[in-house]
Structure to design on (396 residues):
């Protein structure tokens, strides 16, 4: 383990370990289409359930951010984890498409309330100099758990879909137990009375710099999310088997898990906004290279390029948002960031697919390159304002 992570406090390592456990059980969503087909749902009915799943990711972060500031980080995480575990059982037992859609909505809405609280807790636990490393470690845990969980999910699905639901719910409850036992309850997170600070997202909406930064991060996240949506479409259109996409996902997982700790240590001393911009441009270039690929080698090159970009930017965006936030509103700032992430992914699932299928793949790849590089350049242009704001927040 690089020394860059060794000075992080125990709460960060607790969240890291809990995240690995939780993501090991992230099994139902990747195999949801296959489960729904086994229950006899048609294409249109499946779209209702998947749409409800996406809609929950838009609501959950906003609610989680408010609750994290209102009732505390730990209670919010427990509500999300236990609620999502219960919704897993409801989805498995749901008798029809509308009850399945409702359960899917609850899974994503409850599950996505956890991240704003966890991110706010990380911001509480470390100073601004170490936040990027803390968030990078947290993200590394997500990638480790997801990589192992993907292999585990394929094995369990072959032996019965009920195993996916059981392991998924069980991992959430185990994470909830870790939160209960290992994380201290600090009480109300605000430094002053809640009533004096307001209860909504006005604190974020009044922050002009945040309103510039969050949309730019959203564009970058939209381009990255195309790797989940447009890449499998491109591989399919090239006449390659689904196993090729599985191989590309494995290439990404291996690179991120193997390189992220060391790259984070190597880049820690460089200006973080410059690193963020360079990594985002690399992701945009890698995604655009998908349009030039027509075989396994071409797709592998594109995946390697955007995976390296993913490694470079790890933890920076969340750290920037945390440094912009006043102490009493860290949960809501992270909730706004989570909502931006959910919106970007939802846009990739809808708008990205629509552009690919109606205007053509070439339009999508060129759009991704132009939008990604433009957002990276604009982010770099804000470097001075962000650094000045960080210094001011620390002084305050």
């Amino acid at each position: 383990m690089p020394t860059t992570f060794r000075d992080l406090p125990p709460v960060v390592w607790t969240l890291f370990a809990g995240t690995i456990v939780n993501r090991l059980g992230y099994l139902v969503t990747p195999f949801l289409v296959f489960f729904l087909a086994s229950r006899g749902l048609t294409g249109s009915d499946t779209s209702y359930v998947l749409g409800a799943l996406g809609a929950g990711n838009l609501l959950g972060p906003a609610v989680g951010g408010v609750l994290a500031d209102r009732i505390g980080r730990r209670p919010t995480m427990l509500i999300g984890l236990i609620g999502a575990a219960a919704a897993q059982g409801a989805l498995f037992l749901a008798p029809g498409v509308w009850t399945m859609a409702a359960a899917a909505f609850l899974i994503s809405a409850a599950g996505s309330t956890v991240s704003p609280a966890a991110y706010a807790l990380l911001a509480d636990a470390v100073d601004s100099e170490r936040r990027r490393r803390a968030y990078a470690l947290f993200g590394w845990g997500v990638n480790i758990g997801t990589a192992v969980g993907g292999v585990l999910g394929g094995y369990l699905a072959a032996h019965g879909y009920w195993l996916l639901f059981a392991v998924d719910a069980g991992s959430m409850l185990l994470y909830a137990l870790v939160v209960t036992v290992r994380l201290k309850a600090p009480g109300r997170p605000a430094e002053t009375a809640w009533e004096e600070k307001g209860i909504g997202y006005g604190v974020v909406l009044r922050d002009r710099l945040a309103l510039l930064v969050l949309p730019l991060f959203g564009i970058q996240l939209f381009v990255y999310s195309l790797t989940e949506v447009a890449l499998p479409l491109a591989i399919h259109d090239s006449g390659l088997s689904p196993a090729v996409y599985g191989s590309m996902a494995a290439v990404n997982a291996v690179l991120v898990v193997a390189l992220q700790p060391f790259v984070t240590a190597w880049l820690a001393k460089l200006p973080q906004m410059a690193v963020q911009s360079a990594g985002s441009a690399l992701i945009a270039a890698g995604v655009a290279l998908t349009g030039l690929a027509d075989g396994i080698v071409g797709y592998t090159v594109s995946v390697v390029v955007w995976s390296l970009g993913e490694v470079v930017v790890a933890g920076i965006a969340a750290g920037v948002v945390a440094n912009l936030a006043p102490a009493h509103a860290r949960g809501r700032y992270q909730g706004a960031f989570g909502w931006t992430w959910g919106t970007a992914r939802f846009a990739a699932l809808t708008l990205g697919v629509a552009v690919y299928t109606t205007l053509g793949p070439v339009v999508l790849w060129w759009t991704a390159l132009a939008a990604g590089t433009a957002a990276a350049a604009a982010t770099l242009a804000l470097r001075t304002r962000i650094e000045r704001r960080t210094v001011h927040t620390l002084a305050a």
In short: Residues 283 and 306 are 4 Å apart (CA to CA). DSSP finds 18 helices and no strands in the chain.
